[in-house]
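Students often ask why we bother predicting the structure of a whole assembly rather than each chain alone. The short answer is interfaces. A chain on its own may look different once its partners are present, and contacts between molecules only exist in the joint model. In this exercise we take two input lines together and write out one structure for the complete complex. Read the inputs first and try to guess which parts will touch.
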Amino acid sequence: MLNDMEQIHREILDRRRDNRGLPPYRAKLIPEVTDILAQYFAHILPGAVVSGVRRVGGGASKEQFFFTLSQDGKDEPFLLRMDPRSAITETDREREFVLLKAMQGIVPVPEPVWVDAKGDFFPQAAAIMRVVGGVTKPSLSGVKVSGLGTWLGPDLRLKLRDQFLDHLIAIHAYDWKTANLPGYDVPDADPKQAARWSFNYWAEMWRIDEGATRPVTALAQQWLADHLPDTAELVMTHGDYRTGNYLFDEDSGQITALLDWELARIGDFHEDLAWVLMKVFGTIDADGTFRASDLFEREEFIREYERRSGRTVNRQTLHYYDVMSSWKTTVIVAANGLAAARSQHNHQDVLLTFLAATAPMFADDLVRLLSQGDNQ
Amino acid sequence: MIPTVDERIASIVRSLSEVILPHLPPEASLAQEQVQLAIGHLQILRGQIDHIPAYEHEELTDAVAIATALLSSITGGSAMALALDALRASIGGADGGDVRGQVRAIHQAIEQLVQAVAIDGASGANAMLTTTILEHERARVAKDRKWFLPFGFDTM
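Now the answer. The structure tokens for the assembled complex follow.
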């Protein structure tokens, strides 16, 4: 049963394992990226001219660049999203591209235009999309109260919270059954398959990247294997839904694009809810009040999700995915990130080792969650 | 030791922050981010470096303590017997030499034990394993969170 997972995830894991011995990766220089883009468009769009290539700051996984494409007297801005050799999350550009296409008109997303899924033209797999205006955090987020999550403040919070929740509900309501989504397998062989696919993928990723175990991590992994929940309803999940992964207009507070769909899959909506509710992505006020993504208190979020979606949140299933979220983030920062840095396969090794310092926070989450027992 | 480690790190931080960073062009956003992170890392290391041996030895002491508690409290079938033997051997080698390697070996042996309990742990073994690990890890995790507080992520 350990091999039971989506086909694309099996391919990603095999690629991760196969790439371990490759030589170090160096961040691409602007002239190099310009040259790669020029060669690419000479092939697919002869006559188009690439200019103004500049690196996009932030992010911990992809190399991203803005550039202008000029053709027939018209200039258009685009975003190049390119994999490094290894990243803190190992994903598939074509799969993300397919879903971004499918989500047009459902929720605000960037429009994907070209993809080089196998890295035929680019050094690694890459996708190009139209640029969407907006920011991922307020200009004054330097005055953040505390924690890793972005502090939005009361005005933006009020403007963003309904959209944030309604978009999540729209993703979960997406009719994937009638859509053409190549690369997305459906975990419907038995009621536990959705949870098992997720568990198996991250467990194998942990083994491949030789995560340094500790007792509570081992205990959590065994607990997750022993308590796979049934999934009552299969929905499209985003996989990394939180403040920081959407763009918004700072003046109007309008969400202009939901980003980072690379972990999306058909699965259990509780997996998204638990991810949203992770402490690390939220903020804590001076009086100890926690707000998920600085938008909703935990119970308020669950209650509002139930009210607006018409679904019932199963507290036991949510607890399972609470544990899985903290375990998964442990895999991401303490195995994937450190392995990418150790192998020198990333352009931001120093960021990856910096982020690994969050691992004890997730261990603390696991101690707290597992102390609550099996039944919530 | 002349120069001291502290003096050497301080000089690197000053070079990065006052000589290199201001001279990076505005468009070199990745380089600027990386230099700032490198400075942050070095400043944290500067504050921690004298305490690293004590921290790691305490980590080993805690690992031996949890392993000893597990050895004395749970039993089971043949898979458990093998895992318990491996755990016993791992703490037998914990002589304080290669501290990091010894902590890793004990933690790996505990991981095997956790898996073995699921295979043929005796009645009550799983509950005892869970209680013991959570009790010890609660204290250990608090120390680790405190150690990494200077990174600015945590709010403990």
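Check your guess against this: Chain A touches chain B through 39 residues (CB under 8 Å).
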